[in-house]
Design goal:
alpha/beta; 8-stranded parallel beta barrel; globular; binds 2-phosphoglycolic acid
């Protein structure tokens, strides 16, 4: 099961380190849970250092990746370099599709760069109609209405959509996560659904005590 925390562009480097220092020491390793924290690019190295030095049971993820390889692409963060810091990368989050006009083709290129670099791509989709590039194993169903709104999809509907995403992409074996207004109150209901293999959490992962409450709920899976 995957628990992925997406801190978006909400925290400074210092705030990111403070949050990992507050959460990390309280965690115990759960073999069934892959816990991934995705800080912003500039905080990745510092957060990773804390995780490594203290042996926290956390994987580090990036929120994006360049569609290009290493080279003359000013401002981009390439996969080869990212691989030294992260294990996982979110790709095609709806905020990137909306605010940066990311296209399905660009998302496919980013998936290729991640795979080439040995980084696990987690592709965000809005439903079964969103194309899932080849060689993707993990997708996150994130309906736009549910993101940051306090208005999550129902676990039953999320389960239906997750099943549909799997049926639509039978050429690859997919794990489907749910994301959108997940909290410590509703996480259990999502994780109990048959076709949901984890969650992607934004806002609720920014507060140490709420994040820890969420992780507590996963201890039983
Ligand atoms: P949210 O964000 O939990 O704040 O709704 C989820 C996401 O955008 O990944």
């Amino acid at each position: 099961m995957w628990i992925i925390a997406n801190w978006k562009s909400n925290l400074t480097v210092r705030e990111s380190v403070e949050l990992i220092e507050a959460v990390g020491p309280k965690l115990t390793k759960n073999e069934n849970v892959q816990l991934v924290v995705c800080p912003s690019f500039e905080a990745l190295t510092e957060v990773r250092k804390q995780v490594q030095v203290n042996g926290f049971p956390i994987l580090i993820g990036a929120q994006d990746i360049s569609p290009f390889p290493k080279g003359a692409y000013t401002g981009e963060v390439n996969g080869e370099s990212l691989k030294e810091i992260v294990d996982v990368c979110l790709i095609g989050h709806s905020e990137r599709r909306q605010n940066f006009n990311e296209s399905d083709n660009e998302i496919r290129d980013k998936v290729e760069r991640a795979n080439e670099s040995g980084i696990t791509p987690v592709v965000c989709v809005q439903g079964a109609e969103t194309p899932v590039p080849d060689l993707v194993k993990v997708v996150a169903y994130e309906p736009v209405f549910a993101i940051g709104s306090g208005n999550p999809d129902t676990p039953e509907n999320a389960n239906k959509v997750a099943a549909l995403i799997k049926q639509t992409n039978t050429h690859q074996e997919l794990e489907v996560l749910y994301g959108g207004s997940v909290t410590s109150e509703n996480i259990k209901a999502f994780l109990e659904e048959e076709n949901i293999s984890g969650v992607l959490i934004g806002g609720a992962s920014l507060n140490a005590s709420e994040f820890l409450k969420i992780l507590d709920k996963c201890a039983f899976f």
